[in-house]
Recover the amino acids of this structure.
């Protein structure tokens, strides 16, 4: 799939994603809100090291391709993160003893 310019999409190379995940250093007690799940370049490596990942993807085509690959500790939400009720979204996945962290490969327009 090619990046859609109108959505500001750009896809991470898996080697860069691996470096980022190493730098982020997820722990089993971390819960990530990932903005822009895309093809799963960050989502999948994060899911292997973090306790939970709530991933948001605006592109339903990308979300549909990613969903079958996801392990049980990932919740994929299709929608524009700027229009979502993050309080409600995060409350649904909340774990009292986990630390919430945010990661993503954001388009400049969202950052």
């Amino acid at each position: 799939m090619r990046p859609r310019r109108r959505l500001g999409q750009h896809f991470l190379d898996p080697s860069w994603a691996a470096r980022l995940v190493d730098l982020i250093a997820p722990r089993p007690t971390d819960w990530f809100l990932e903005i822009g799940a895309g093809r799963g370049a960050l989502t999948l490596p994060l899911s292997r090291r973090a306790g939970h990942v709530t991933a948001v993807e605006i592109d339903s085509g990308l979300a549909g391709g990613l969903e079958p690959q996801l392990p049980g500790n990932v919740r994929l939400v299709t929608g524009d993160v700027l229009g979502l009720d993050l309080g409600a979204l995060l409350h649904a996945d909340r774990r009292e003893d986990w630390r919430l962290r945010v990661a993503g490969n954001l388009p400049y327009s969202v950052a």
